[in-house]
Amino acid sequence: MNTVLKPGRIGSLTLRNRIIKTATYEGMTPGGLVGDRLVAFHRSMAKNQVGLTTVAYGAVSPQGRTFEEQLLVGPENAAGLKRIADAVHGEGGAVSLQLAHCGGFSRNASIEGGRALGPSKGWNKYGLLVGVPRIREMDEQDLERVIADFARAARIAQDAGIDAVEIHCGHGYLLSQFLSPIINRRRDEWGGDLDKRGRLAVAVVDAVRQAVGRDFPILAKVNTADGVPGGLELNESISVARSLVAAGVDCLIPSGGLVTHSPWYLMRGDVPLKSMLRVEHHWAQRWALRCFGPFVMKHYSYAPNFFLADAQEMADAVSVPVALLGGVDSAAAIDQAVDAGFEWVVMGRALLADPDFIPRLASGEAIVSRCTHCNECVAEMDRDGLRCVLDSG
After folding, report:
1. I want to staple 135 with a disulfide (CB 3.0 to 4.6 A). Which of 14, 104, 210, 378 is the partner?
2. Active site residue 25
3. Residue 138 gets which letter from DSSP?
4. Which residue in 25, 57, 126, 173 is the catalytic one?
5. Measuring CA to CA, how many Å separate 140 from each of 50, 85, 119, 203, 243?
6. Is the Cβ–Cβ distance between 119 and 186 less than 8 Å?
7. What pLDDT digit, counting tens, does each position of 216-239 carry?
8. What are the strands of the beta sheet with 134-137, ordered from one edge?
């Protein structure tokens, strides 16, 4: 049997296999609330034998939403989160909730004061044309509030029956913004050298661990690199990984890229700009995307297991499981990952394109996903919810 098909443990949680469905914004939370489609989506992942499915982008506060439709982890969603947990458990799976804060990357015009929060003041290019043009530098009260918000959200998830939480420390959201030297220009105790830039992420993990107790699993998504000159590089990322593990993280998911500078560093493959224009509802954002999108959205060539080399260096440096994300799209890619020492893999597009990927893998098939890396699924998030366009008929 393939190693990833065997049961495994993350902290105290035993999973039926070692395949994790990555957190990808589903576009199924109108008004920020859990609905029937989100429940059905994660039930289907569990039904198709995913070991751990991850509910994407649970904003820890109203201020932490990139836009108003994102899931808000608050009392209003406690019952909805329990519905997801019950549905997934009913299919024999387990479910994690990704906890995040957008920081200075926001187009949510309803945020308090009309200004996004970030490590350093500046212009918010993402919200410039929709009423959120500025980023306010966070003060000590802001930082204390955010740390408490992460801890509170984790406890809500735990009480709702969610099996684990994933702390989002990557992709240019708030914790990643503090970690990145190209974004964090502070000269106080929260910026400068790596220990200070990493202080917020470590404090969040520590607070979450205290809130949920010793036995509740905590995962963390971290950048191996920001993918832009002057950003976080692998050597610093490895130090960050060690600090997060020391603070209480049970499993690391290495990724990469900044939404503000290198958005397709994470995805690789085609950039579906035309489709993104079609689903953009705000005229000013559509104009900006048409004019500047070709320059901002750099293309990165796709290859199977494209984060493997960097993730392997991180795995060698820590004592907890490290799950390989990025281009895990075939039985051969999984074999390569296992041969490189990875016992856990994280999948996204391949599971959208081939919902029966895991049963076919378990049957011994040398499956290759039909995913073409067109990335049209990214536009679908904002059109009518996450799906593979290969199913259009």
Report:
1. 104
2. no
3. P
4. 173
5. 41, 35, 11, 13, 22
6. yes
7. 999 999 999 999 999 999 999 999
8. 116-118, 134-137, 122-123
